[in-house]
Amino acid sequence: MKNYWTESKVNKLTKLWEEGVSARDIATKLGNVSRNAVIGKANRLGLSKKTLKGEKSQNKAIDISVLVPNMSGCKWPIGHPGDSDFYFCGKEVIPTKPYCGEHCLIAYRRKDNSQKIKKFFKLNSEN
Ligand SMILES: [Zn+2]
Asked: pLDDT of 15-59, one tens digit each?
């Protein structure tokens, strides 16, 4: 089933998932796909995290300020909020930082603070 996930299928999956439709029903609506494939795709899109706690999104627009406090892992946004492929990095974060190592470097480089961060990593890697 190569290239099954066309853009329109992904958009449909995202929309149905956010409406709280079950993976089984989504699979039926999309056609020619298993429930597991739907769940797997939703995981890769980062959709499952939002519904794990049983919360339905009230608003289709993604509000970062609402999402961020509820998620663990790196809070670096990938893509543009509101796009169907928008998600947060989600990797393991550096203690006391909101981002993973990779994104800390980017975030702090932006603030011309890279020396401080490099020092931080060096100290940690020598443990
Ligand atoms: Zn990250």
From this structure: 999 999 999 999 999 999 999 999 999 998 988 665 544 444 444
66 has a pLDDT exceeding 80: no
**Residue 64 CA to ligand 1 centre (angstroms):** 15
**CB 117, CB 105: distance < 8 Å:** yes
Q: How far is the CA of 69 from the centre of ligand 1 (A)?
A: 15
Where are the chain's structural domains? 7-45, 61-127
Confirm whether pTM is higher than 0.70: no
Residue 61, φ and ψ in degrees, nearest 5? -70, 135
Ligand 1 centroid–CA 24 distance in Å is: 31
100 Cα–ligand 1 center, Å: 4
Token duo for residue 80 = 């543009």
* C-alpha 94 to ligand 1 mean position (Å): 10
